[in-house]
């Protein structure tokens, strides 16, 4: 495999990018967020006259060969995924010694959104999109390994997209002993160094649990789960059963992967106990699917 080349000499460490500064055709507008390795900026593409998000790894990462391999992996995984529920990588390259990944600009992360009220029907619509996106990654043998609300980005029209494949791996049937990921949503076996499709299912289940109940149960789970009554409110039994199964502490009792989880959810005709809500979800889903087919 070709390796990324580092250009130029020794760049300064972490030169801050200020509002108004230019990187090739991009003008920085503001800072959107910071994860462990990178800063994400909103910017304007001055050629296309469009707003974009630029993810720029801290310089100490883009100048070290180990982490360059990680960046290369993240970029190559994202470049091969093409799905409405996965944030699209539009470009990735060095600009003035900085490694820059370019994405469409979203409104906010799911984590930000969860601080305000969400209706049941919108939540279920988001959940179906999220499970569909992870199912697509699994179909392409990609383990995400860091599924959490910060890594889902909201777009207009009630669309939600999965991003941040910085810890993702292509499943090769062998176990990876590193225990990276975010502890809060991590499956117990992943914390022990054994990530699998089932551990992505677990993290996704916990994110869904949090969306519906406002809480995340602490492992080891003990009945009654905190917030479970709130979680159930307005949902059909079948839908709640799928969520419960996805967060079973025993990996073997969960869905094998997000494809199986999606199939179980998509089979449920009435996810909500309220028929008006069900009609709304069905309408949103079919609108979205038909606009996707047309695209
Ligand atoms: N395309 C985007 N549109 C809007 N906000 C974004 C976008 N991408 C990322 N963000 C914000 O930046 C944060 C960090 O982005 P992420 O890709 O997860 O980087 P990291 O690897 O540093 O966690 C996200 O949690 C989100 O708040
Ligand atoms: Mg992140």
Distance N to C terminus: 33 Å
Q: What is the fold-level CATH name, i.e. the topology of the largest domain?
A: Transferase(Phosphotransferase), domain 1
The CATH superfamily of the largest domain is known as Transferase(Phosphotransferase) domain 1
Total discrete domains: 2
For the sheet with most strands, the description reads: 6 strands, antiparallel
- What hetero molecules are in the model? adenosine-5'-diphosphate, magnesium ion
Rg, Å, rounded: 20 Å
How many H/I helical runs? 10
Identify the CATH class of the largest domain: Mainly Alpha
Helix-strand string: EEEEHHEEEHHEEEEHHHHHH
State mean pLDDT (0 to 100 scale): 90
Second CATH tier, the architecture of the largest domain: Orthogonal Bundle
- Shape designation: globular
Keywords: ATP-binding, Kinase, Nucleotide-binding, Transferase
Protein name: Serine/threonine-protein kinase PrkC
EC number: 2.7.11.1
GO molecular function: ATP binding; protein serine/threonine kinase activity
Question: What's the short story on this structure?
Answer:
This protein is α+β, with helices and mostly antiparallel strands and 295 residues long.
What does this protein structure show overall?
With 295 residues, this protein is an alpha+beta fold. The protein has 2 domains: 22-104, Phosphorylase Kinase, domain 1, CATH 3.30.200.20; 108-284, Transferase(Phosphotransferase), domain 1. Helices cover 37% and strands 18% of the residues. The protein has 10 helices and 11 strands. The chain has helices at residues 59-62, 65-80, 110-113, 120-139, 188-191, 197-213, 228-232, 237-246, 258-266, 275-294, and strands at residues 22-23, 26-34, 38-45, 50-57, 91-95, 98-104, 108-109, 142-143, 152-155, 159-162, 169-170. A hairpin with a 2-residue loop joins strand 1 and strand 2. Helix 4 (120-139) packs antiparallel against helix 6, helix 4 (120-139) packs antiparallel against helix 9 and helix 4 packs across helix 10 (275-294). 35% of the residues are buried. Residues 6-12 have low confidence and may be disordered. Magnesium ion binds at residues 35, 150-151, 164. The site of adenosine-5'-diphosphate has 20 residues, from strand 2, strand 3 and strand 4.
């Amino acid at each position: 495999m070709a390796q990324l080349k580092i250009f130029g000499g020794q760049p300064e460490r972490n030169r801050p990018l200020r509002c108004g500064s230019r990187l090739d055709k991009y003008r920085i507008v503001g800072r959107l967020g910071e994860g462990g390795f990178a800063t994400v900026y909103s910017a304007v593409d001055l050629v296309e006259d469009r707003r974009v998000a630029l993810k720029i790894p801290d310089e100490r990462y883009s100048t070290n060969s180990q982490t360059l391999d990680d960046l290369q992996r993240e970029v190559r995984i994202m470049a091969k995924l093409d799905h409405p529920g996965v944030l699209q990588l539009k470009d990735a390259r060095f600009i003035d010694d900085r490694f820059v990944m370019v994405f469409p600009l979203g409104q906010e992360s799911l984590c930000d959104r969860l601080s305000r009220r969400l209706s049941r029907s919108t939540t279920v619509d988001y959940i179906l999109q999220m499970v569909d996106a992870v199912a697509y990654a699994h179909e392409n043998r990609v383990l995400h390994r860091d599924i959490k609300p910060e890594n889902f980005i909201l777009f207009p029209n009630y669309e939600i997209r999965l991003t941040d494949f910085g810890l993702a791996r292509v499943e090769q049937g062998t176990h990876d002993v590193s225990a990276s990921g975010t502890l809060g949503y991590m499956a117990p076996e992943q914390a022990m160094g054994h990530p699998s499709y089932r551990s992505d299912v677990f993290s996704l289940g916990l994110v869904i649990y949090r969306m519906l109940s406002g809480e995340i149960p602490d492992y080891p789970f003990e009945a009654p789960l905190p917030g479970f009554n709130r979680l159930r409110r307005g949902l059909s039994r079948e839908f709640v059963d799928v969520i419960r199964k996805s967060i079973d502490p025993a990996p073997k009792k969960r869905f094998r992967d997000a494809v199986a989880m999606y199939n179980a959810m998509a089979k449920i005709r009435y996810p909500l106990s309220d028929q008006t809500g069900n009609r709304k979800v069905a309408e949103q889903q079919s609108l979205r699917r038909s606009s996707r087919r047309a695209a």
